[in-house]
Amino acid sequence: MTAVTAPTKRNVGFLLGLGILFLPFVFVWFLLRNGHSLLARIIGFGWLVLSILIVAGAPSSTSSHNTSSQISKTSASSPAPAAATAPAEPLKAYTAAQVASSYEDNTVAADVQFKDKRVQVTGRITDINTDFLGKPYLVLAGTNQFMGPHFKFEKSDLAVMATLKKGATVKVICT
Fold first, then answer.
1. Is the pTM of this model over 0.85?
2. Could you tell me which residue, 166 or 1, shows the higher pLDDT?
3. Is residue 71 very low, low, confident or very high in pLDDT (cuts 50, 70, 90)?
4. Class (C level, CATH) for 67-174
5. Which of 14, 52, 151, 164 is the most buried (most CB within 10 A)?
């Protein structure tokens, strides 16, 4: 005859517990195996949900090409308002073609030249769009038809971005 044995009760081991603590997206699924208690499953999946909420609620890091909302159309007849305070470092002006060419030639050197520096870039708009988070961005004409410099904005700049049109020449002050 064959003997029927009851499934053994499994404890959550030390390594599985560490895995669930630090990588719940992967290791919590091991709790669905036979033998783990309902309490272990509730705690494990509760931690998974909490981890997802923490990751989803974390603010996204700022990009090196974050731009301020100071955009002036050079084709417009009214001049842009003057800044209230003068920046500590003089504002360097570049064209979008210069920025694109610098990145095509040597990305590391271009990062040293442009990243974390306040610069003004002038160029013709080839695309105005939003990313998957709903934040607007501009693409200016560069040296490559398909890979122009991108300039990201915050959602609070949507009203200003809505007034722009493709083909317009703009000056963008960014960091």
1. no
2. 166
3. low
4. mainly beta
5. 151
